[in-house]
Structure formats: C-alpha cells, structure tokens
C-alpha cells in the first residue's frame, strides 16, 4: 500500500473519536428508552445511571471503539487507493474474492455479531445465551432464538458489506456546501433513524427466508457441539417463527445496527470532506500546489477543493498568488499553481481522448496517413520532375521515422494478441472477458471531481486578476488557460455528439451521468466566467484563430 | 418633508412616461407615442404583450364552469378525487351525503374517519401553523407580485448577460423573448403549475430555474435551437418532500448553487443542480422561508421568513446572523454594491438599510437604519403615491431604486448614491400606466450598457421597458 497521507490519517482519528462519542450517546439513549418507567421516574433514572456506569456499558464502548477503528481502516483502504480498474466481468468477479474483501467480509460479520449481541444485552433481552436449563428433561437445552439473533447479526454485517462495498460504488462524495460538523450531524440524525428502520426490513425478510430453508443445519451443528437438547418448537417452521415474535427483535436490533453503522459512515464522510486551507507559500507545511500535484489521492481532492474556495472567496490568499517573489521578481506561486492545474487538466483530456479514440491512437495514425498521401497527389498533378519529393524518398523517410522491427517475437506477439482479441469476441467468452461498454468512461468520470474544481478555480482566479493582479501575472497566461479549457470542453463534447454516440459512451450508471452533466456545466461556466469578464478586452488577448472561433459562441452567449 | 418632494410632475392624463435621458424626463401620448423618438437604446428589446388570447387553456376554478358535469358512479368519483387531490379529499367526497346517496353506511364510516383525521390535522396545524394554507394560497400570500393569481404576467426575469427575458404568464407557461430571434420559446411541462419565480443561471446561456408548486424545474433552452416548444426532456425537476410550493428560486452570482425557498418549509435548500442533491439550511424559529437574495459578490445570502425573523447567511461557513424586524415580516429586499442591503417590512412605508458600520474599526457590527420614508401623499395631479411597499428593485450598478407600492398605480424610481459609507437617496421619476393599469411586477435589466432599464409588467399584460440613459 502506498504511504498514507498525514492529513488523511489525522482526519480518520478525529472521525473515530467523534464516532465513539456518538455511539456512546446512542447506547445511553437506548438504555434510557428501554427502561422507560413513567410511574417510577426515580427508579427509572437511577437504574439507567447504574446501567450506564456498569461494566456492560464499558465493554460496549470498548467494542464499539474497536468496530469504529476497524471501519476507519476499511475507509482508509477504500478511499486512499485510486479506484480499481476493472473493465471486464471476469476481472470484476475475480476481484470480489480478493484476500482483502474476504478479510473484510469476515470482519464485518463479526462486527455485526458483536454489535447485535451488545445491543440486545443492553436492552436486557433474554436471548443472550445459547443454553438454558431444560424444563422437561435433565440437562441443558438450546435457546434457538439467541442462535437466530446471533446468526442474524452476522448476516446483517455481510449484507451491509455486500451492499455498500461490493455492489455499491465507494467514492467519497464531497458536499457542495460545508456547514459546521455539529449542524450536519444534527441534520443527518433524523434521516439516519428513519432510513435505518426502513432499510432493515428487507434483510430481515431475506434472513427469515434463509433460516426457513437452511436453519436446521446450524442448529444441529450447535446443539451437537454443545450437546444440547432441543425443547422448543423449531424456528425453521414459518408459523413457529412468526408466533415466537423473535423477528420483531431481530428487526429492532438490525435497525439499531444499521443506525450505528450509518452514523459511522456519515461521521466519516463529514470529517473527511471538510475543506482544508492550504497555504500558498510555506516551508514547513503542504502548500496548495503540492497538494494539487498529488492527483488521484485524497490530498489532491482537498487541494482542488481549496483552490476553488480560495479563488471564489479568499482575497487575501489570492493576493499572494498575484505577487512576485522577492528577490528575483518571478511569479513563482502562480507558475507552480498553474503548472499543476494544467497538467491535471491535460491528463484528463488525454484520457478522454483515449476513450474517444477507442483506446488506440487512431487519430495520429490518420493524420500521418493524410500527411503521407497529400504529397503523392501533388506529385502527379505537377508536370515538373522533382527528385526531392519522389515517392521513394517519402517511403524512405517514413521508414526512418517509424522503424518497424520485424523480429519473430514481435510478430508472434502481435499474432497472439490478434488471436486473443478474436477469441474475446466470441459470444460466450465476450460476456466474461470482453470489455464492458461504459466502464472505462465511468471510471474516468468518477475521478472528475477535482477536474471540475480546478476548472472553476482557474477561471475565478483569472477573473479576479482583472482587478486584483497589479503586475498582470495571470493575464499573460490567459491564452493557455482558455485553450486548455476549450480543449477540455471539445473533448467532452465528442462524448455526446448527436448521432455519433458510440456504444462505449452510453452510460447506464445514474451517478456517472450526473457527474458528466456536472463536468460539462462546470467547464462551460468556467469558460463563460473568463470570457464574460474579459469581454471588453478579448481582442487584446493574443489567441489562436481556432480559439477565437471557439470562444465566439461564448462571447455572444450562444453556447448552450 | 416627503420623499416625493422634488419628483418631476406626472405627465398629463393621456400621456405616459417613456424614458429618462440625461436627466430629461420624456413623456408622450399613450396611444401614438413611441419610445424610439427619444432613444434607440431599447430598439432591439423584445416587444412583449401578453394578451388573454395567447394563453393556453387551463382548468382553473373560473373556466371549470365551462365543462358539463358528467354523472360518474360513486367508486369512480372517489378514486378520481383520490388520485387527483389525495386521500382526505376522497374521504370527504365519500362522506358527503349529497354525493354519496347510494351507500349510506360508507358515508357514515367515512365521516367518522374524517373526524379522526381532522383531529390529527388540527393538532399538526397547532404545531406548525404555517402549513395551514396550502399550495397556491401560500404563494399568493407571500408573493411580491400584485394580485399574483389573476394577472397576465406572473413574473419576469432578465438574463444576466444578454438581452433575453423570460416571462411567466397566467397559464403557467414560461416564454423566453430574445433580442435577436423573432420567435418565442414557450416552456411548458406537466409539473409546471403555479409558477412563482424565475431565475436565469449566471455564466450559462441556456439554463433557467422555474419555481412552481411541485418544486424547482431547471430548463435548458438551447439558444441556437429553433424549436418554439422545447420538449420536457430539457427540464429537470428538483423536488423534495415537504418543500412545496416553492415561493422563490435564486442562483448564486457565481452560477454554481441554486437556493430554493418554500413558504411551507422551514429550511431553504441549496441545490447542486447537476448532481440533483440538496442540502437543507435550517435554524430554529422563524417559520417558512419566503425568499432568499444573494449579495452581488455571492458572499452573503439574505433569507426572509414568514415571521419577524430574517437571517443573513455567510456563505463561506454557512452560518446565519439572526435579525428581527420590528413590525411585520420582511416583504422585499435587495442587495447593492459593497454588501449594502435594503429591505422593507410588510405594511410599512419605510426602507431600511443594513450596513456594516464597524468596518473601519475592524469590528463586524451591523445595524439597520431607516433610509427612506415613503409615507402616502397626494400629488398635485390628484394621484396618490407611497404607502406600504410591495416590491423593490435595485439596478445592478446601484444607482437607481424602483419601488412598487401596494396602494398606488405609480412606480417611484429614486437615485441612490453611495459615497463615504453614506447612502443618499434622491428623487428621480415616476412610471405610470395607461388608464387604470396597475403595475404587477418589475425587474431591472442586468446588462444595459447605456444606463439602467426597468421593465414593468402592467395588469393589462403590456410589458414596458423604461430606460434611464446616462452613459451615451
């Protein structure tokens, strides 16, 4: 694993602390509610306090702390690594059974088990132990309800893991406005409760069905191992299950488990996505452009977000960008920032073009071909003999330029790839090994958030420079900013050109479609921001003719 | 001394005011006069006249009488009412003995269920009294448009960067008039009913947010397209339970965020439109949020509630500063240059300014000071002007302030100058209508190079551009 960033780990720790506080609060509220005794308020309060200060509570908190540390570890693993690139069904399938996922699923099952049994013990339920004294025989009997609950806990852990980490896309969504942590938690809490109680219905149903079909096996195993008798009617009978009422308990505890795990997730999201203020120039701490340079990592996200916030709302730090270095008089801050932003944007454009060109560099090849063809035509149309442009010479040149090595291994390799490709196109095999239609684009779009922020940040800095930049530092770079933005816009436009939509560009994922809209909107707004701000002086900016034509529609407000 | 002392005399009865050019107040005959005889600055402006016959049909209470009643069977009646108006209405139909003659048992049962339901709703209204009015009633209660439910032009909005204006008409269609194109795009979809507000997205040529009963509809109207009726696939409906009817929408001046307010919702929603995600902003006390206004540099948001409380949100940390109006709720507010805010309370002939008084000393104390008293007076011509304020607009450069009164057929325009932290308000001119016309709503054009251009929608459906030219 790559080195974790310091900021990220610090935030994880903060999140864990917040989490422990909230989980404790949740447990206290649970104890308070369960012991409700309106007729004897004094005993209610005292017994609650006794329970809260008791060893069970301490154990509960320790265990919850362990669970939340484990959650932090999982988050660290999922968010720190760039998203995995799996483009075929087969690789996705294989990836599901990676060591990491297997370990995580076991851990989740355990955490489900522990959380459930803890809540049930806090709620003073009678189904905490597997054994009881038999009523009709000598010896010990199995309490099947507690077995049901404990298995249910594991099931819920696994269910959550599958739902969120395997079938869901685990990307960190940054909120578009950031309020205080406390406010956000306050807003989220009622929502978490209602969602928790609602979404626990489905897994309880699934589990009841599962138990109905397979429940006899774990029961037999457990009663064999502990050599217990079975006294009560078995729960894998539908009527017994319903009449025992244990499903209500399971639903209640599952809801609590979901509430606690959603709380954890919300807290992690809130703490991790907090905007960070990076200094523009500093010797000791991470500067803005250095953060931007760590592209796909967490710091890169924070850097891009900070760039946008700084460009929009922070005149003091903007002033630092518009200053020259002393001594020397170079716009070092701006140059560093611009280099990083542009390289980020250019990288994204390149990736987009790769997708547009079906992953091959076909465009260059076509260009080369055209270049090669035109001289021939001219050759034969002219009457003059011209040795310097003879076709043979061109061929020779071409040969020198693109040396093709005709070694046996290369040919074999190429043949092998062709063969593989052919096999991959066979119907059945294609299903598993063929590249999925939109995954490449989806993968790229999922990482587009910093690109949007960077575009907007650059545009707002450029717009602010009209009034704040005394040395004209930013204005010298306006053409390159504009051309990069326009290039980006054209590359995105290619994805949606009417009538030419490639199968690979049709997105099925709603999130990806929305991100695409957001990206287009952000890029256009950035261009509009620059063009409208500088509209009076646009002819004084040295722009290429292509670029001038491209921004004409923006000048006239005709670009949809 | 009255604030209206020093205004130029009103034009004679047959004449209306056309424009003001370099301090010269130009009037002409209402029927034969033409603004082009005075100035060319509005020559390319779209000519808008919303008459009754261009309206599409709509089943409102007035023209419902046109349709002949069909005798349906009871079950069909109940289900159709349930589908259209909800469960409670269906219950009351079932309980109504004049409708339900066939099954008296059902009527009795329904009436008992209705009684129980009424107890619950009464309790709910006791807790949340602002929810008592439903749907369009809330909008018309809090609207800054005169007689909102019954005027040809419900609201209008200028595009921030081009000469393009959107007008919401009585049939809840939004028409987009453009200076270059001759045709008018009409935006209409099923969800778009009871339009309360319009707002063009800054730094975009095509997007407009429409606040209506169901929520916010964001249309993307391609300026190059020749379709006069864009399909509803160009519209995105943003809604959230409990956030209806939307009484106001406003884009941030940076074009990135959209705030929607609903008189029935205590939180205002900040939307990321592309991702269709909203973050609610809510604080204790205050009732429903009526409208929100962004400051010109997007650093602050003014939010008025249905009670005395109003808030000024700081947009970097999204924390509010709570204020309390003295007499009544805030009815209109506008931001000017330098984070200066003007607001007025309902039923009060007074304009207040909210300024940062402690800026020089570094402390951030602000206070509200009365800056303009527009108590009702009778002009020498016999017209009355002044009184409680209905709406207020400030032109984007902060030089002219237009005020619409509740009880006057005139619009008063004042000159405002902001010098040395002092706001000076001096008289400019009146805008009057033809005959008995009343102004329903107004808006300043956002990018008028020659000065300021106030667009007024009159109660007859006539839309007038009133330029104040000083930059020629």
UniProtKB/TrEMBL annotation, chain A:
GO aspect biological process, one term: nuclear pore organization
GO function terms (MF aspect): protein-macromolecule adaptor activity
Transmembrane segments: 12-34, 54-74, 86-110, 158-178, 190-214, 238-259
Chief localization: nucleus
GO CC annotation, single: nuclear pore transmembrane ring
Membrane topology, record value: Multi-pass membrane protein
Subcellular location: Nucleus membrane; Nucleus, Nuclear pore complex
Annotated keywords: Membrane, mRNA transport, Nuclear pore complex, Nucleus, Protein transport, Translocation, Transmembrane, Transmembrane helix, Transport
Protein family per UniProt: Belongs to the NDC1 family.
Protein name per Swiss-Prot or TrEMBL: Nucleoporin Ndc1
From TrEMBL, chain B:
Residues annotated as domain Aladin seven-bladed propeller: 136-469
SMART domains to which the protein is assigned, alphabetical: WD40
GO cellular component: nuclear pore
One Pfam family this sequence matches: Beta-prop_Aladin
Transmembrane segments: none
Gene Ontology biological process: nucleocytoplasmic transport
Name of the protein this chain belongs to: Aladin seven-bladed propeller domain-containing protein
Organism: Diatraea saccharalis (sugarcane borer)
């Amino acid at each position: 694993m790559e080195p974790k960033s310091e900021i990220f780990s610090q935030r994880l720790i903060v999140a864990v602390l917040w989490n422990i506080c909230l989980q404790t609060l949740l447990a206290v509220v649970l104890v308070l509610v369960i012991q409700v005794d309106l007729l004897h308020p004094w005993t209610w309060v005292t017994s609650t306090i006794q329970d809260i200060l008791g060893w069970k509570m301490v154990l509960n908190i320790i265990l919850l702390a362990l669970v939340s540390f484990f959650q932090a570890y999982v988050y660290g693993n999922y968010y720190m690594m760039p998203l995995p690139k799996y483009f075929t069904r087969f690789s996705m399938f294989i990836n599901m059974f990676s060591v990491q996922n297997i370990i995580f699923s076991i851990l989740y099952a355990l955490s489900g088990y522990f959380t459930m049994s803890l809540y049930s013990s806090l709620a003073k339920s009678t189904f905490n132990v597997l054994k009881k004294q038999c009523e009709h025989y000598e010896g010990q009997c199995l309490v099947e309800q507690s077995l049901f609950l404990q298995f249910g806990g594991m099931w819920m852990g696994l269910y959550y893991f599958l739902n969120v980490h395997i079938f869901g896309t685990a990307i960190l969504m940054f909120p578009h406005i950031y309020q205080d942590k406390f406010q956000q938690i306050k807003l989220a809490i009622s929502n978490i409760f209602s969602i928790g109680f609602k979404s626990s219905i489905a897994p309880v149903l699934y589990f009841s069905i599962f138990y109905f079909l397979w429940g006899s096996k774990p029961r037999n195993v457990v009663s064999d191992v502990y050599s217990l008798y079975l006294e009560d009617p078995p729960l894998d009978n539908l009527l017994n299950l319903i009449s025992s009422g244990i499903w209500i308990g399971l639903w209640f505890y599952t809801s609590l488990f979901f509430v606690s795990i959603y709380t954890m997730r919300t807290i992690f999201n809130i703490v991790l996505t907090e905007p960070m203020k990076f200094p523009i120039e500093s010797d000791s701490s991470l500067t803005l452009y250095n953060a931007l340079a760590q592209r796909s990592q967490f710091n890169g996200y924070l850097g891009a977000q900070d760039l946008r916030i700084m460009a929009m709302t922070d005149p003091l730090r903007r002033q630092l960008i518009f200053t020259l270095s002393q001594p020397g008089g170079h716009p070092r801050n701006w140059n560093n920032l611009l280099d990083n932003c542009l390289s980020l944007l250019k990288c994204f454009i390149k990736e987009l073009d790769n997708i547009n060109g079906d992953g091959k560099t076909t465009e260059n090849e076509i260009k080369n071909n055209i270049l090669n063809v035109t001289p021939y035509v001219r050759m034969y149309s002219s009457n003059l003999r011209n040795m310097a442009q003879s076709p043979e010479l061109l061929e020779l040149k071409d040969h020198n330029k693109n040396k093709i090595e005709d070694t046996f291994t290369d040919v074999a390799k190429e043949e092998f790839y062709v063969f593989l490709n052919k096999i991959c196109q066979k119907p059945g095999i294609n299903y598993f090994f063929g590249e999925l239609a939109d995954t490449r684009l989806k993968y790229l779009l999922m990482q587009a958030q910093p690109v949007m922020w960077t575009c907007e940040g650059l545009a707002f800095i450029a717009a602010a420079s009209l009034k704040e930049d005394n040395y004209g530092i930013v204005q010298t770079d306006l053409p390159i900013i504009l051309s990069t933005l326009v290039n980006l816009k054209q590359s995105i436009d290619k994805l949606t050109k009417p009538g030419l939509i490639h199968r690979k560009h049709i997105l099925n994922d709603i999130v990806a479609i929305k991100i695409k809209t957001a990206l287009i909107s952000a890029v256009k707004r950035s261009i509009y921001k620059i063009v409208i701000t500088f509209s009076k002086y646009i002819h004084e900016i040295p722009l290429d003719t292509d670029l001038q034509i491209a921004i004409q529609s923006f000048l006239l407000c005709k670009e949809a | 001394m009255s604030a209206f002392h020093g205004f130029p005399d009103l034009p004679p009865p047959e004449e209306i005011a056309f424009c003001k050019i370099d301090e010269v107040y130009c009037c002409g005959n209402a029927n034969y006069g033409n603004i082009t005889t005075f100035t060319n600055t509005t020559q390319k402006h779209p000519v808008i006249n919303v008459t009754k016959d261009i309206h599409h049909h709509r089943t409102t209470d007035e023209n419902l009488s046109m349709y002949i009643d069909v005798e349906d069977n009871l079950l069909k009646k109940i289900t159709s009412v349930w589908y259209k108006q909800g469960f409670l209405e269906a219950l009351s139909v079932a309980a109504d003995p004049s409708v339900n003659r066939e099954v008296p048992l059902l009527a009795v049962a329904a009436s008992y269920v209705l009684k129980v339901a009424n107890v619950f709703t009464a309790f709910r209204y006791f807790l949340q009294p602002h929810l008592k009015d439903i749907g369009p009633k809330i909008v018309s209660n809090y609207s800054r448009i005169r007689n909102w439910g019954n005027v040809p032009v419900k609201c209008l909005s200028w595009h921030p960067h081009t000469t393009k204006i959107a007008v919401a008409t009585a049939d809840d269609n939004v028409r987009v008039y453009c200076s270059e194109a001759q045709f008018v795009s009409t935006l209409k979809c099923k969800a778009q009913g009871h339009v309360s507000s319009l707002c063009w997205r800054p730094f975009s040529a095509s997007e407009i947010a429409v606040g209506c009963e169901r929520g916010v509809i964001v249309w993307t109207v391609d300026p190059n397209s020749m379709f006069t009726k864009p399909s509803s696939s160009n519209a995105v409906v943003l809604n959230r339970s409990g956030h209806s009817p939307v009484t106001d929408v406003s884009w941030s001046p940076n074009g990135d965020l959209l705030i929607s307010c609903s008189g029935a919702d205590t939180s205002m929603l900040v939307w990321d439109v592309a991702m269709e995600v909203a973050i609610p902003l809510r604080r204790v006390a205050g009732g429903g949020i009526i409208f929100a206004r962004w400051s010109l540099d997007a650093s602050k948001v003014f939010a008025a509630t249905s009670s005395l409380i109003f808030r000024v949100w700081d947009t970097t940390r999204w924390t509010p500063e709570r204020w309390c109006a003295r007499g009544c709720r805030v009815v209109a507010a506008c931001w000017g240059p330098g984070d200066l805010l003007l607001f007025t309370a309902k039923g009060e002939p007074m304009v207040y300014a909210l300024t940062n008084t402690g800026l020089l000393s570094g402390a951030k104390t602000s206070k509200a000071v009365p800056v303009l008293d527009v108590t009702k007076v009778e002009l020498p011509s016999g017209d009355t002007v002044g009184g409680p304020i209905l709406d207020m607009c400030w032109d984007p450069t902060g030089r002219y302030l237009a005020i619409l009164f509740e009880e006057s057929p005139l619009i008063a325009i004042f000159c405002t100058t902001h010098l040395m932290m002092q706001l000076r308000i001096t008289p400019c001119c009146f805008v009057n209508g033809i005959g008995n016309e009343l102004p329903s709503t107004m808006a300043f054009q956002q990018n008028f190079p020659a000065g300021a251009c106030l667009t007024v929608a009159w109660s007859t459906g006539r839309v007038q551009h009133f330029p104040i030219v000083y930059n020629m």
